[in-house]
């Protein structure tokens, strides 16, 4: 399956590609990784649009069903570090193949399971793929094409993430509405099979001459500004996923919307997020601090206002659009802050940052789930809003305005 890619130069960590202009095969390899990122994002957040039907069939509360987001996030936090260190100098194409294979297995286990603990086991397997991919796969753009085209390659890979947010989750919700939630996971598994086949066909050899060690991990934490960025990441991710994980039950129970209408609103949310991504790129070019503060305030107020103004279709639609814009701004604002804070430590500390983001995601879903089960679904919106506003307050109080970023970065959802 590798015949036509073997002609490509072998890419190593230490030697830049001698090819000045990327070949068609190189761009196809980049595209295969981008489609993999799309499949990952879609699978990770697939339960968000399906929580009510999953909870009803498996006989659990919607707060407990939210563990389908929490569990892979927790596992991904550890996998980001353990996989990165554990694979050592293994050819990165084999690593990516293995991580993509976890998507296939995870979706099949969930789709075929009638036991909720087994469903969670399948989702835990997904966590290995998610954590490992973001610690390794996100850095492949500058290895698959020459340095001059690396930024474009990276943006293509991250575009798969945005597309997964815009189209993947609402598409899963629509499939679940028409053919049941299990078919949504079967479909995700089938897509993952195609992704794996494309990667096995298109990815060139990606050997590496160095391996990450545990001693290198704390590099990011030694930088004060990076520690502040990690705190901001913790607060904003908890806020986002405490509320977003339970937005479907809210729209169903409080706003009284049909499953079809909710699917449309999820699509609108994703489209607003894509626009927010562009706005975030403009904002961080002027002030990363102000971009972070704006993200926290907009997200916090729109989420917290859902119980007050989101009980009607019109009110929910307006708030979903505003919230989506903030969601799109969130990753590029956080990522730019971190890269500015410690550009030399991000390579060694990247796994720590991924772990922080994933544990925050998992904690958000968990906090929201507890709130839903004890205080009602509307409370998750308020809790999420409070955490987001807390992030804005922390940056306002402790961050210095740091001017323009060192380099234009691309968002990671």
Automatic annotation (TrEMBL):
One example of the protein's molecular function in GO is: transmembrane transporter activity
Q: What's its membrane topology?
A: Multi-pass membrane protein
Question: What organism, scientifically named, is this protein from?
Answer: Duganella violaceipulchra
Chief localization: membrane
Q: Does the keyword Transmembrane apply?
A: yes
Q: Which CDD domains match?
A: MFS_NepI_like
Keywords for this protein: Cell membrane, Membrane, Transmembrane, Transmembrane helix
Residues of the Major facilitator superfamily (MFS) profile domain: 29-402
Q: Which Pfam families match?
A: MFS_1
Q: Where in the cell is it found?
A: Cell membrane
**Keyword Transmembrane: yes or no?**
yes
Domain of life the protein comes from: Bacteria
TM region positions: 25-43, 63-87, 94-114, 120-141, 153-175, 181-203, 228-247, 262-285, 292-310, 316-339, 351-372, 378-399
Q: What is this protein called?
A: MFS family arabinose efflux permease
- InterPro entries cross-referenced by the UniProt entry: MFS, MFS_dom, MFS_Efflux_Transporters
Provide GO CC annotations from the record: plasma membrane
């Amino acid at each position: 399956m590798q015949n036509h890619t073997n002609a490509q130069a072998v890419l190593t960590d230490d030697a830049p590609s001698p090819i000045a202009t990327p070949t068609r095969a190189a761009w196809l390899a980049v595209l295969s990784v981008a489609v993999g990122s799309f499949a990952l994002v879609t699978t990770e957040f697939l339960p968000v649009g399906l929580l009510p039907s999953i909870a009803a069939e498996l006989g659990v509360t919607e707060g407990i069903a939210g563990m389908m987001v929490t569990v892979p996030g927790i596992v991904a936090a550890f996998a980001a570090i353990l996989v990165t260190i554990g694979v050592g100098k293994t050819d990165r194409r084999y690593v990516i193949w293995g991580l993509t294979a976890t998507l296939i297995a995870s979706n099949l286990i969930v789709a075929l399971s009638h036991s909720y603990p087994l469903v969670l086991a399948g989702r835990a397997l997904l966590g290995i793929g998610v954590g490992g991919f973001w610690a390794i796969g996100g850095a492949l753009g500058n290895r698959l094409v020459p340095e001059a085209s690396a930024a474009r390659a990276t943006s293509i890979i991250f575009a798969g993430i945005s597309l997964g947010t815009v189209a993947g989750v609402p598409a899963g919700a629509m499939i679940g509405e028409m053919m049941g939630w299990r078919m949504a996971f079967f479909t995700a598994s089938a897509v993952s099979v195609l992704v794996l086949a494309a990667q096995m066909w298109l990815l060139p050899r990606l050997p590496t001459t160095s391996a990450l060690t545990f001693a290198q991990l704390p590099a990011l934490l030694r930088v004060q500004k990076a520690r502040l960025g990690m705190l901001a990441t913790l607060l904003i991710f908890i806020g986002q996923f405490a509320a977003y994980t339970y937005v479907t039950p809210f729209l169903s129970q409080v706003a009284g919307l049909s499953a079809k209408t909710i699917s449309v609103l999820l699509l609108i949310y994703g489209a607003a997020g894509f626009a927010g991504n562009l706005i975030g790129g403009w904002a961080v070019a002027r002030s990363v601090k102000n971009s972070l503060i704006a993200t926290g305030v907009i997200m916090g107020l729109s989420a917290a206002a859902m119980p007050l103004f989101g009980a009607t279709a019109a009110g929910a639609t307006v708030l979903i659009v505003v919230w989506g814009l903030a969601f799109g701004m969130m990753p590029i604002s956080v990522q730019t802050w971190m890269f500015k804070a410690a550009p030399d430590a991000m390579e060694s500390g990247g796994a720590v940052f991924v772990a922080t983001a994933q544990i925050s995601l998992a904690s958000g879903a968990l906090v929201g789930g507890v709130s839903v089960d004890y205080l009602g679904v509307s409370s998750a919106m308020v809790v999420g809003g409070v955490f987001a506003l807390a992030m804005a307050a922390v940056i306002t109080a402790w961050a210095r305005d740091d001017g323009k970023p060192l380099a234009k970065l691309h968002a990671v959802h």
